[in-house]
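ugh ok fine here u go
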Amino acid sequence: MREVQARLAMKPFEGRGRAEILVGADRMRQEGANALLKTLEEPPDGTLLILTAVRGTAVLPTVRSRTQIVRFGRLSAEQVGDELAARTGMDATAAARLAAACDGSVGSALSAAAEGDDLSEDASEALGILLSSGCSDVIELAAVLAKKLGTGSSWLFCSRMRAVIHDLRRIAGGAEPLYSVESDLPRDGMPGTEALNEAARQFAVCEYRLRAGAMPQAALTAALTGAWHAFSTGRKGALERVR
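structure:
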């Protein structure tokens, strides 16, 4: 924060002003926030301060109250697919399939394309284990995935799991799946909507933790066992379509 304030105290080398982008404001500690408050209250002329945050509610209230909040929603799968194809030269069909698994994020889609694997087989296998196996099998799965995927791909796996769970919720509501082939999705003994929502939340939290530097095995174990518990306690007789 002191470095930012020192830069802002100087006149811009060219142009009429300057902008500072502070990434990860939701991870800011109290000391950093206190150092920033005066600058937020009385920024130098021609200065634009942009704070980004994954979780807006995690930004300290003293900082949040001095900012104008702009929320960015997910892009559509079509928008992500078009951008992915344009930036990478990927075949349009392959780009559309990969984009649908990336939860509205161009960055996630580009990362998955760079990895060369959309992790759909891992997600499908994990879903089957979550629905039909015991807790010890789920813990073992987390260890295997952490070793296989490492830090770089573990958060992409979480994104794929969320995409598959979103498809299950769409089918439960009578809509077509966006990512999965419907015949490949489980039909019987599916959890209810609340359980699916909780499982999706578990993988969203896991992705955030992994991006913040958490150990893959610890983060994946927490997410997979949390999803397994939600499925186990929220199972109903069959997945029903709502026509």
